[in-house]
Design a protein that fits this description.
138 residues, alpha+beta, four-stranded antiparallel beta sheet, 6 strands
């Protein structure tokens, strides 16, 4: 990224289709994020999920079948954090929000993928300061 650029990344992950009764028991998910701003690393994240049955423990994913990460890199990111924390997106969604050095990270978990999607849409609208594109609301 250029030093004056802003970045908004949203990555939802759903582990099995709820309507089809699917539950993921095995597989490998490896997610690797590196974001550089003005040539310097400003954000790094690594996720590796392999033993999906073990991830059902309460200290891990629990009953969640959907998760998401939102990253916002912008000079206003830290100022938005308090406002986003005040918004309860949905009772079925567990959310953590962190902000530092012009970055905002939101992590969400839910047993209900549509509830997670609704929460993400609300967060992204607040971050953008305007309605979502129509394709997101269909």
């Amino acid at each position: 990224m250029d030093a004056s650029a802003s970045l908004l990344l949203v990555e939802p992950i759903v582990l099995g289709r709820l309507a089809m009764g699917e539950t993921v028991h095995s597989g490998l998910l490896h997610d690797h994020w590196r974001v550089k701003r003005a040539g310097k690393l400003c954000f790094a994240d690594e996720t590796r999920l392999a033993d999906f049955d073990a991830l059902r423990a309460p200290a891990s994913l629990g009953k969640a079948r959907a998760m998401a990460t939102v990253l916002f890199v912008d000079p206003m990111a830290e100022a938005l954090a308090a406002r986003l924390r005040d918004v309860a997106p949905h009772a079925d969604v567990t959310t953590g929000i962190s902000a530092w050095n012009g970055q905002l990270v939101i992590r969400t978990l839910s047993a209900n993928p549509p509830a997670l999607r609704a929460a993400l849409m609300k967060f992204v609208e607040l971050i953008r300061g305007r309605d979502l594109p129509r394709v997101w609301t269909m």
